[in-house]
Amino acid sequence: MILGLLATVGWALGLILLVFSIACGLYIISEWTEESPRQTRKAIQISVYVVDVLHVLTLLDGISWWRVLVSVGINHVYTLNLKTFPVVNLTSAGFLGSCILAITNHFMWFFYFIGHLGFPFGQVCAFMFFCVWMLPISLFISLMPVESSLPNTNAGDSKKTRQNMFKAAFQRFRRSDEQVLHVE
pLDDT tens digit string along 54-91? Predict the structure, then answer.
């Protein structure tokens, strides 16, 4: 009974530390991308071609060829966001289309692997990370919206500043924590 409770607490703490580590890693990556957007843009462009090659190689394992073609097409729609990289208009057709297509791509592959249970779980996770999630996550972390389009900015302020989307969300969360701490 006690060992079971300790194991549960250990798993919970491990999960919390894992999530915290991932958040810290994403924050550091967003710092790097903000400091060198030209290199980040080049890295994302190269990543698109690497993911295309990975998709083609998965055909050797019997993956659905038409899903591979759709997924490769979706990856190239993501590159529309690189035209104005790292600044993004959150209401542009390219950004909204990329968001919808990222969700569509995820569910297309999710339902494919649900119907084809012959693939080991580790292979499915690796495919989903490298071929489905890597490009949208890298674009999300590195895109910088015009700050006046964010909900917490003053409407009368005409000065437009750029800030990384992940950092903006993290700082907003930090500000709300600081306000709670100062109230008490």
Answer: 999 999 998 999 999 999 999 999 888 888 877 777 78
Count Cα atoms within 13 angstroms, Cβ side, for 84: 14
Which residue, 41, 19, 22, 35, is CA-closest to 164?
A: 35
Query: How far is 181 from 175, CA to CA, in rounded Å?
Result: 10
For the four alpha carbons of 120, 122, 128 and 131, in that order, the dihedral sign comes to negative
Backbone angles phi, psi at 87, to 5 degrees: -85, 135
Residue ranges with strand state E in the chain: 87-88, 144-145
Residue 165 has a CB neighbour count (10 Å cut-off) of 19
HSE-up of residue 74 (Cα within 13 Å, Cβ side): 27
Report the C-alpha dihedral over residues 130, 19, 21, 146, rounded to 10 degrees: 70
Residue stretches of the chain with pLDDT short of 50: 146-150, 153, 155-160
